[in-house]
Design a protein that fits this description.
The complex is a heterodimer of chains A (about 110) and B (about 250). Chain A is built from 6 helices and 3 strands. By secondary structure, chain A is an alpha+beta fold. Chain A has a 3-stranded antiparallel beta sheet. With about 250 residues, chain B is an all-alpha fold. Chain B has one domain. In chain B, helix 4 packs parallel to helix 6. Chain B is elongated, with a radius of gyration of 23 Å. Classes of the chains: A alpha+beta (about 110), B mainly alpha (about 250). At the A-B interface, helix 3, strand 1 and helix 4 of A face helix 1 and strand 1 of B. Strand 1 of chain A pairs antiparallel with strand 1 of chain B.
């Protein structure tokens, strides 16, 4: 990493947990609501069950989301909620990415 | 996944959560439908004109009366049940609490409670006025109404019904649309209670009867107009909700 071009330093410091497209999509969806059920997250991101589970586990490991397990009748229902750390990380990521864009591409 | 797609994703989630919280027009459409049902049930009970009245056995009358006054509570119970039946297939998304929206919700709840308190106070004052009039000018033996127990039962509606409506309000109102529908149903209940009193032995002059009849008719026309628009609006909102569902990506094979 020490050999890296100093101009590329801001790109290299991007939070890789958030930077991955699927995880970015998951965090974006979660940031738009209070609590989101697994089924909706799966449909809206277009990910398979296995992929979604793997990404949510990584995000939970990083402390960016929390899993809420409940029962609807006898059926187990899994929902997710973005944590305060997750909100901060997503905001910081947006800020970093916007700073990296050329002036004319910033909205 | 570019930023445009992400913002679309965010909008889609927000819209879905907002629609799901309001059950995508269900509360409005159901409110409109039940307002019409209340009106029709009431028409079955009271004389529509001087020459026409349907005669029902007493238990049927009682059931119809209970149904009319329980309709706002029925709306509150039916709404989540139908919502669960119709809108759960894509998973639940809880809406973020919005301060302004939440504040408006409580304004509606307080408004309904104040209206019901005003109604109860007015009913109590009328009772006191009538009672004092009775003491100062006692009627002759032949003029005393024979169906006094039924008059007392009608006081049960004035005492209990508004309390039930008020207690249910914070529980069943989660937004403006629901508040509007619930307010109309509660207003219908109150209007029918007042109208019920006017048919229960109170002797009105022909002029005041015509005046109250006109007020009742105008109020019913307004409510029925609202109910029709609510059903149309509810249907439109439901179509918008279906459009959101269509915008969701297809499930992977």
């Amino acid at each position: 990493m020490s050999d890296a071009n100093p101009d590329l330093q801001p790109i290299l410091t991007l939070d890789r947990t958030v930077h991955e497209p699927s995880r970015l999509a998951i965090l974006t969806v979660l940031s738009a609501a209070e609590e989101v059920e697994f089924l909706f997250l799966q449909r809206v991101t277009g990910l398979s069950k296995g992929n979604l589970s793997s990404h949510t586990q990584k995000l939970e490991g990083a402390g960016y989301l929390e899993t809420v397990k409940a029962f609807r009748g006898r059926i187990p229902v899994t929902s997710f909620r973005i944590t305060d750390d997750g909100k901060v990380a997503l905001k910081a990521y947006h800020k970093q990415l916007r700073a990296l864009l050329p002036e004319e591409k910033k909205r | 996944m570019n930023t445009v797609e992400l913002s679309k994703l965010e909008c889609l989630t927000k819209d879905y959560a907002a629609f799901q919280a309001r059950k995508s027009g269900l509360a409005t459409a159901l409110g409109g439908l039940l307002a019409i049902v209340m009106f029709l049930l009431y028409c079955l009970l009271v004389p529509i004109s001087n020459g026409f009245r349907l005669h029902w056995p007493r238990p049927v009358v009682r059931i119809l009366a209970i149904l009319i006054f329980a309709t706002p509570l029925l709306w509150a119970a039916l709404k989540p049940l139908l919502g669960r039946l119709l809108y759960r297939s894509l998973g639940e998304v809880k809406l973020k609490p919005e301060v302004t929206y939440e504040r408006q919700r409580w304004y509606w709840v307080y408004g309904i409670v104040m209206f019901l308190l005003l109604f109860q106070t007015a009913a109590l004052l009328s009772f006191i006025q009538g009672f004092l009039g009775y003491l100062s000018h006692p009627p002759a033996v032949g003029q005393i109404p024979t169906d006094l127990p039924s008059h007392w039962r009608s006081w049960l509606w004035v005492g209990v019904m508004p309390c039930a409506y008020a207690l249910m309000a914070p529980w069943c109102i989660r937004g403006r649309e629901e508040a509007r529908a619930y307010s109309v149903l509660v207003a219908q209940g109150v209007i029918f209670t007042v109208a019920g009193f006017s048919f229960r032995g109170v002797n009105y002059s022909a002029a005041s009867e015509a005046w109250w009849g006109a007020v009742w008719f105008i109020l019913q026309m307004v409510i029925l107009g609202w109910a029709t628009l609510a059903i149309i609006r509810g249907r439109k909102e439901h179509r918008e909700y279906l459009a959101i569902l269509r915008n969701l990506p297809r499930e992977e094979a």
